[in-house]
């Protein structure tokens, strides 16, 4: 199919010339400098899809199988996700179910997908497709916020099980095309995307790994970080050409009339002057937009306008709403204005990506790149060109020239002064009259090579804390936690059975706001987090980004009309409860409820591993045998007496050792027992290669670079000097076990001498030394190693989800 026909079938429109160039030119450009409202999203998504499925064979091979679409704000994610689903559906390529329920119009998980169909997955705070990583060999689209995607690409995924971090780290740094949209809003996250692309080139990847950066104010200098080389990592640039500007539907956009004025007052805390200005300028059945720089200012202005009881539909849109209220408000904002029109009070969430147009735009002063984006929300399609009454009014902050008194949040004072200087004496904000963006991009933190290497180790420190990656994802003031409310009586803690949250319950809250809300002035307010070791909700200690926290509904903090306030004393409405949270001994996708011996289950894992290897030829051929060896040995440790004693023997033993049981497993008699550590130690005793040993040890995400005993783990009472870790004791004996496929593991006495530092005269290098050698090997590196680890885990997950002759009840995914 030619691209023009393909594009029209997907969107119902002919492609613009630049959109066709992006899809068909070789090599693929990495930098897109495209004016707002000209279809960058369609250009990027459909260019990838056409290259992957319809271009010539060499181009298809060079196009990664995963498209990762990264956006700075969740409101942009929701729109992009809806568009991608619609386009694939129009092309007949959408995997999953459509029209499941009104509340869930698209479900990416369907057991009867055609192998050629493509699933679209959503990743944003409070709304994450949990199983998108189950099919690494299939083409897929991931659309998410920079918080969700970059935290996963840095092996510290927000809002997910820590034991699954390495899987998504591997998949997001291999065989993928990253698209960064509206990069002017990404802050430190932009530097991280550039550095990660440089590291993928330096460390090496399995399959191609490329990146595209897009904005209406794109500057290649913004990507010139320490390790990024523009000539190697982003040599191609694509801009709007003369042939694009001649398009009949685009010409009114480029010639859009936008009268520019400065407000006669400076910004006020209460929003009274701004409210009066909005109501004075709003006209009939049109849309007026007010874009301010902070959520608190938006809330204050909304209340100030509401007190005046306007006839127009008044809408508040910002990032501190729960999904249900946010989606309802955005729908009102985008709806065709009624008899009295619509007034939208917004933060930067509509600054980019939201396809909305207003006759009157009133905006706080912001950096020049942001101002250009906001101007694009006035007379967007040139619909007011004939009346020539589309107007932009900008409001300067108080004390603009006094750093000590100026409140420039969330921007730098110099950024505002530079923008004000460009706006001085200017009365026209039309696209063709605006000067280009020349401002530099300052990053407060830039991730370095050592940081990425250190992040490969997901073991928490002795205090249970992890390396904080938030500084590499957003500026400090923007870091969030996600909270939800439950009906918990005063002076009581949550019950041990209290389930985790679902999407509709989440609200994003700045870390600083939550700290203030919990401070000593408000005694009795409490937050709880899930402790995977003790499998219970525990009282929160330190507050840091990415946490998912439970709050008591009667403590308030949230208002359905204005979102998170941290001040509202009314009871926060409870939405609903989600699934039970995951503990240290859980691996939801491996918990198949059936009777199966180690040999039976292992045969299925080996078969699934072989299928994955075949589907991704030739990229995985160098590691084919070692992956199959790991699959064959991965459950040898289940022959350990501790595991077998936890099997509920409700059925006659028919030979071999059980790997799966139909009734739920009992608790292990040794706290924290990990069968995969026993498997790996047995493999070392049998002389198998270290890479296979690592893949086996890590196949539940709990034993990786280090071997360490858990807090409260009990030591052998008969010999306090005996080494112990993860429920395995030095000198434990594994009996002979049939591993299937004609492979048998002999009786093996395991040793934990590998826990010690240095080299043992009998067993050789320590565990840590062996694993670090793998991670740092030129032929592997952290990204390739994580990808192989992911494949091993996926093979086990999928084998655990397959039906067997013994029709056992399956645990819900």
Number of contiguous helices: 25
Q: Sketch the major β-sheet.
A: 8 strands, mixed
Classify the helix fraction into a percent range: 25-40%
CATH class group of the largest domain: Alpha Beta
Q: What is the mean pLDDT?
A: 87
DSSP strand count: 33
**Alpha carbon gyration radius:** 28 Å
Q: Beta-strand level of the residues, as a percent range? A: 15-25%
* CATH architecture label of the largest domain: 3-Layer(aba) Sandwich
Give the CA-CA distance, first to last residue.
38 Å
Tell me the CATH superfamily of the largest domain.
Answer: P-loop containing nucleotide triphosphate hydrolases
Report the structural category. alpha/beta
Shape: globular
Structure description:
The protein has 4 domains: 3-245, P-loop containing nucleotide triphosphate hydrolases (Rossmann fold, 3-Layer(aba) Sandwich); 256-429, Rossmann fold; 479-583, no CATH class; 588-800. 31% of the residues lie in helices and 16% in strands. It contains 25 helices and 33 strands. Helix 14 (323-334) links the parallel strand 13 and strand 14 (342-346). Helix 2 runs parallel beside helix 3 (40-53), helix 3 crosses helix 5 (74-91) and helix 19 crosses helix 25 (781-800). The longest helix is centred in the last third of the chain and has 20 residues, at 781-800. Mean pLDDT is 87; it is low at 100-104 and 803-813.
What is the secondary structure topology, with strand pairs?
Blueprint: H1 3-11, H2 17-24, E1 31-33, H3 40-53, H4 57-62, E2 66-71, H5 74-91, E3 97-101, E4 104-107, E5 119-124, E6 127-128, E7 140-145, H6 146-153, H7 165-171, E8 176-181, H8 188-203, E9 209-215, H9 230-233, E10 237-239, H10 242-245, H11 251-254, E11 259-262, H12 272-281, E12 287-291, H13 295-307, E13 313-317, H14 323-334, E14 342-346, E15 360-364, H15 368-375, E16 391-395, H16 413-423, H17 449-455, E17 480-486, E18 507-510, H18 511-517, E19 527-531, E20 536-539, E21 548-552, E22 558-559, E23 563-564, E24 596-597, H19 598-615, H20 624-633, H21 641-646, E25 658-660, H22 675-685, H23 690-697, E26 724-725, E27 728-729, E28 733-734, E29 737-738, E30 744-745, E31 748-749, E32 759-760, E33 764-765, H24 767-776, H25 781-800
Parallel strand pairs: 1-9, 1-10, 2-7, 2-8, 5-7, 8-9, 11-16, 12-14, 12-15, 13-14, 15-16, 17-21
Antiparallel strand pairs: 3-4, 5-6, 17-18, 19-20, 19-21, 22-23, 24-25, 26-27, 28-31, 29-30, 32-33
Helix pairs in contact: 1-5, 2-3, 3-5, 6-8, 7-25, 12-13, 19-20, 19-25, 20-23, 22-23
């Amino acid at each position: 199919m030619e691209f023009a026909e393909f594009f029209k079938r997907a969107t119902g429109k002919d492609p613009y010339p630049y959109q066709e160039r992006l899809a068909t030119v070789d090599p693929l450009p990495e930098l897109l400098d495209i004016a707002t409202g000209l279809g960058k999203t369609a250009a990027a998504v459909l260019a990838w899809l056409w290259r992957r499925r319809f271009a010539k064979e060499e181009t298809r091979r060079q196009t990664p199988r995963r498209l990762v679409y990264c956006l700075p704000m969740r409101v942009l994610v929701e729109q992009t996700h809806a568009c991608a689903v619609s386009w694939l559906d129009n092309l007949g390529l959408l995997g999953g179910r459509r029209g499941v329920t009104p509340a869930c119009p698209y479900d990416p998980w369907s057991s009867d997908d055609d192998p050629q169909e493509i699933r679209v997955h959503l990743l944003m705070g409070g709304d994450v497709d949990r199983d998108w990583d189950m099919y690494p060999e299939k083409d897929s689209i991931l659309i998410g916020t920079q918080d969700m995607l970059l935290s996963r690409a840095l092996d510290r995924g927000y809002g997910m099980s820590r034991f699954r971090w390495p899987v998504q780290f591997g998949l997001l740094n291999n065989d993928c095309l990253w698209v960064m949209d509206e990069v002017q809003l990404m802050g430190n996250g932009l530097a991280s995307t550039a550095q990660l692309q440089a590291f993928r080139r330096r460390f090496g990847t399995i399959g191609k790994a490329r990146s595209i950066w897009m904005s209406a104010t794109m500057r290649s200098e913004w990507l010139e970080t320490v390790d990024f080389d523009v000539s190697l990592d982003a040599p191609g640039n694509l801009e709007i050409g003369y042939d694009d500007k001649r398009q009949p539907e685009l010409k009114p956009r480029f010639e859009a009339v936008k009268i520019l004025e400065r407000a006669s007052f400076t910004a006020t805390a209460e929003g009274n002057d701004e409210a009066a200005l909005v109501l004075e300028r709003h006209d009939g059945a049109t849309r007026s937009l007010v874009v301010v720089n902070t959520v608190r200012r938006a809330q204050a202005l909304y209340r100030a306008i509401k007190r005046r009881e306007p006839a127009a539909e008044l809408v508040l849109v910002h990032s501190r709403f729960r999904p249900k209220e946010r989606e309802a408000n955005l729908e009102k904002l985008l709806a065709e204005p009624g008899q009295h029109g619509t007034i939208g009070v917004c933060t930067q969430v509509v600054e980019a990506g939201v396809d909305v147009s207003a006759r009157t735009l009133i905006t706080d002063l912001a950096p020049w790149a942001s101002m250009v984006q906001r101007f694009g929300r006035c007379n967007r399609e040139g619909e007011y060109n004939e009346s020539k009454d589309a107007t932009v009014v900008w409001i300067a902050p108080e004390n603009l020239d006094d750093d000590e008194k100026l409140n420039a949040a969330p921007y730098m004072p110099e950024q505002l002064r530079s923008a004000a200087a460009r706006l001085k004496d200017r009365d026209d904000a039309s696209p063709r009259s605006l000067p280009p963006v020349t401002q530099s991009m300052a990053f407060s933190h830039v991730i370095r090579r050592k940081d990425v290497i250190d992040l490969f180790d997901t073991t928490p420190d002795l205090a249970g804390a992890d390396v904080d990656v938030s500084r590499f994802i957003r500026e400090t003031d923007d870091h969030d936690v996600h909270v939800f409310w439950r009906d918990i009586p005063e002076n009581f803690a949550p019950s041990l059975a209290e389930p985790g949250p679902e999407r509709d319950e989440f609200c994003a809250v700045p870390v600083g706001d939550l700290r203030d809300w919990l401070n000593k002035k408000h005694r009795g307010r409490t937050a709880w987090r899930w402790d995977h070791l003790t499998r219970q909700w525990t009282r929160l200690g330190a507050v840091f980004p990415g946490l998912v926290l439970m709050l008591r509904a009667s403590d308030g903090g949230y208002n359905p009309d204005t979102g998170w306030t941290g001040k509202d004393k009314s009871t926060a409405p409870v939405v609903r409860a989600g699934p039970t949270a995951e503990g240290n001994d859980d691996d939801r996708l491996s918990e198949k409820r059936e009777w199966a011996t180690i040999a039976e289950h292992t045969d299925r894992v080996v078969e699934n591993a072989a299928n994955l290897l075949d589907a991704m030829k030739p990229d995985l051929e160098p590691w084919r045998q070692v992956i199959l060896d790991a699959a064959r040995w991965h459950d040898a440790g289940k022959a350990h007496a501790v595991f077998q004693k936890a099997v509920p023997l409700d059925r006659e033993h028919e030979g071999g050792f059980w790997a799966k049981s139909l009734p739920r497993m009992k608790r292990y008699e040794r706290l924290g027992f990990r069968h995969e550590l026993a498997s790996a130690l047995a493999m070392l005793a049998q002389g198998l290669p270290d890479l296979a040993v690592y893949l086996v040890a890590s196949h539940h995400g709990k034993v990786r670079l280090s071997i360490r005993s858990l807090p409260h783990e009990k030591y052998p009472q008969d010999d306090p000097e005996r080494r112990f870790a993860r429920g395995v004791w030095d000198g434990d004996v594994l009996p002979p076990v049939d591993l299937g496929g004609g492979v048998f593991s002999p009786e093996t006495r395991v040793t934990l001498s590998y826990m010690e530092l240095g080299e043992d005269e009998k067993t050789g290098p320590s565990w840590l030394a062996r694993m670090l050698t793998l991670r740092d090997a030129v032929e592997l590196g952290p990204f390739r190693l994580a990808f192989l680890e992911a494949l091993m885990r996926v093979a086990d997950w999928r084998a655990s989800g397959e039906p067997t002759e013994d029709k056992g009840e399956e645990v819900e995914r």
